[in-house]
């Protein structure tokens, strides 16, 4: 391999690719599987949780887009953050982001297996998770363009079905036909009220919300492979945010309106499958189950991409062995991808013992990590204006610094609330990982 080939990724991704990739990363297990947990915690008030999460996400992503436009040489988050906050925050962000994705793809391989079990109940979780893991690895080892096209169409399929779900759900809510009577909106208040578990239930659900929206910031990883990032990234941020809030709020509104909130959790199938069963179309539940499965594979696809590119840039900068910077003839960081896929197979081994509970266990730690990633991005954006003078010819956040401060205060408040409402085991394991990352920086990172 030529040296030039080892150090440069090709700019082959367009606006439609990275928009769909961000959607692919964010509309996955958090929506289709995590929805049950969020509804169980907050009841119908989960709608407020997802609205608040969407507003925070908007403010964080606007800051990310502005920093990306101002720093045209940036390849990933590290480059954006290091120039503003220094080496340790950039190092910490890089590794918790990498940890988030490798744990996420492990968790989602198990969720994918759970949905496959809907058809193949006789097969154990670990065999099905292994099959999905091999498939996702193969897709990522192809060229970036093939990966991006695959991700585009997978994301498009699930978005189309969510739209169908919204239309069908509204019909069930508002229209009587045959033996079906319009359900209306009584389920929003008739089972303990709109806030059945009070404000603490709403705060607890925010961990699932933050986890669910996590993945959108993958736009910050695509900088080195995006054509004209200074134009494409702001456009992708705007369109992605509108779609994510729409594709979360409306489906959740339909679910908690159609199904009593206290009947959603504890059922093996996704609430989306439950609603499609209500429609009464033969095989509708199987169709929805298949789409949910594709959605999760799509999210795993984005996750493996994101984690491998973080590892690749670390290798290019000499922070991890250079072998992870080597590209194949198709300009794919093959060794970085293979290293990250190890997490998939660790997840498979873990599922041998924990089974379907693997996802619930990992989701808490992932929620913490997404929250810290957003906090660091927001703080970096707050300070970035001091480093660079204003330039009205490029993208700027309109209500800076107010929107960024709102995001920082909201995320800090959610963090405090989550500490008091989350399992101490999950919190302890997450803290141990963060301490380990910090210790590796003190031991090695400072001398790089």
TrEMBL record:
Predominant localisation class: membrane
InterPro entries assigned to the protein according to its UniProt record, in alphabetical order: AA-permease/SLC12A_dom
GO biological process, any: transmembrane transport
Subcellular location: Cell membrane
Residues passing through the membrane, by range: 47-69, 101-120, 126-148, 155-178, 198-220, 241-261, 332-355, 361-379, 399-418, 424-443
Domain Amino acid permease/ SLC12A: 17-428
GO cellular component: plasma membrane
Pfam families listed in its UniProt record: AA_permease
Its membrane topology: Multi-pass membrane protein
Keywords: Amino-acid transport, Membrane, Transmembrane, Transmembrane helix, Transport
Origin: domain of life: Bacteria
The protein, known as: Amino acid/polyamine/organocation transporter, APC superfamily (TC 2.A.3)
UniProt source species: Lysinibacillus fusiformis
Lineage, opening ranks: Bacteria, Bacillati, Bacillota, Bacilli, Bacillales
């Amino acid at each position: 391999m030529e040296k030039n080939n080892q150090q440069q990724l090709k700019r082959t991704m367009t606006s439609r690719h990275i928009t769909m990739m961000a959607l692919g990363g964010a509309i996955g297990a958090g929506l289709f599987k995590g929805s049950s947990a969020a509804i169980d915690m907050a009841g119908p008030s989960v709608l407020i949780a997802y609205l608040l999460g969407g507003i925070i996400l908007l403010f964080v992503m606007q800051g990310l887009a502005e920093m990306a436009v101002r720093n045209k040489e940036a390849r990933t988050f590290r480059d954006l953050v290091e120039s503003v906050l220094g080496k340790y925050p950039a190092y910490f962000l890089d590794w918790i982001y990498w940890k988030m994705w490798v744990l996420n793809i492990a968790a989602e391989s198990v969720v994918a297996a759970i949905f496959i079990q809907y058809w193949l109940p006789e097969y154990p979780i670990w065999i099905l998770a292994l099959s999905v893991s091999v498939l996702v690895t193969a897709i990522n080892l192809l060229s970036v363009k093939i990966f991006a096209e695959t991700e585009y169409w997978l994301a498009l399929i699930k978005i189309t079905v969510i739209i169908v779900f919204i239309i069908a759900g509204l019909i069930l809510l508002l229209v009587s036909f045959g033996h079906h009577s319009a359900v209306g909106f009584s389920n929003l208040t008739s089972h303990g009220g709109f806030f059945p578990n009070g404000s603490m239930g709403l705060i607890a659900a925010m961990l699932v919300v933050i986890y669910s929206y996590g993945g959108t910031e993958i736009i910050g990883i695509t900088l080195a492979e995006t054509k004209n990032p200074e134009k494409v990234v702001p456009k992708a941020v705007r369109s992605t945010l509108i779609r994510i809030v729409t594709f979360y709020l409306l489906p959740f509104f339909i679910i908690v309106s159609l199904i009593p909130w206290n009947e959603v959790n504890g059922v093996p199938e996704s609430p989306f499958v439950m609603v499609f069963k209500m429609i009464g179309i033969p095989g509708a539940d199987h169709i929805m189950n298949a789409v949910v499965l594709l959605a999760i594979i799509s999210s795993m696809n984005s996750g493996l991409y994101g984690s491998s590119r973080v590892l690749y840039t670390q290798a290019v900068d000499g922070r991890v062995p250079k072998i992870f910077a080597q590209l194949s003839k198709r300009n794919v960081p093959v060794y970085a991808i293979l290293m990250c896929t190890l997490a998939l197979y660790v997840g498979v081994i873990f599922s041998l013992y924990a089974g379907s509970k693997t996802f619930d266990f990992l989701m808490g730690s992932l929620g913490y990590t997404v929250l810290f990633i957003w906090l660091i991005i927001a703080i970096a954006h707050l300070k970035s204006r001091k480093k660079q003078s204003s330039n009205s010819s490029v993208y700027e956040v309109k209500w800076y610094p107010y929107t960024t401060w709102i995001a920082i205060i909201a995320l800090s408040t959610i963090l405090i609330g989550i500490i008091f409402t989350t399992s101490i085991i999950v919190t302890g394991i997450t803290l141990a990982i963060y301490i380990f990352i910090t210790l590796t920086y003190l031991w090695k990172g400072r001398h790089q």
